[in-house]
Request: fold
Amino acid sequence: MTEGAAEVVLRPIVPDDLDRLSALEVELFGAGAWSTTMLADELAGPGRWYVGAVRGGAAGQELIGYAGSWDDGDDVQVMTIGVAREAQGHGVGGMLLGALLEHARQVGAGSAFLEVRVDNVPALALYERFGFERIGRRRRYYQPEDVDAWTMRLELTGAGAPDEGNGR
Reply:
């Protein structure tokens, strides 16, 4: 684990995190940010699993990152990974992705899928470091920015992924 991530603890996301989640969404994703209502619906949705990263792990600590997935019974879709700008580059994104993939393996998923902006170089590097492969391009996927996405897949039946990295 890289320096900085050592003091980070992962914990389940709870409804009380919605205000901070909303603030991070706007900080990280601007016009494409999910609304507070969308986030609440996502957290409550069937098959969803969300995890947060806090510094030091004390109860009530402010979230510096979050990630979520959706399990459909066969595969897992990585729905989002976000790390506060001041915490990026310290392995938090890798911790979160590692937790999502561990959960995916625990629920018996055969593959993990995700979409990522074609221009998000740090996130692409993270996903490729974990073994994800690009399988297609979705034109104009991110709105209202009108940006394409790579669809990526990781087969989960093979060897484990690295346990560090960063980004979304």
Notes: Residues 19 and 36 are 7 Å apart (CA to CA). The two ends are 17 Å apart (CA to CA). The longest strand covers residues 133-142.
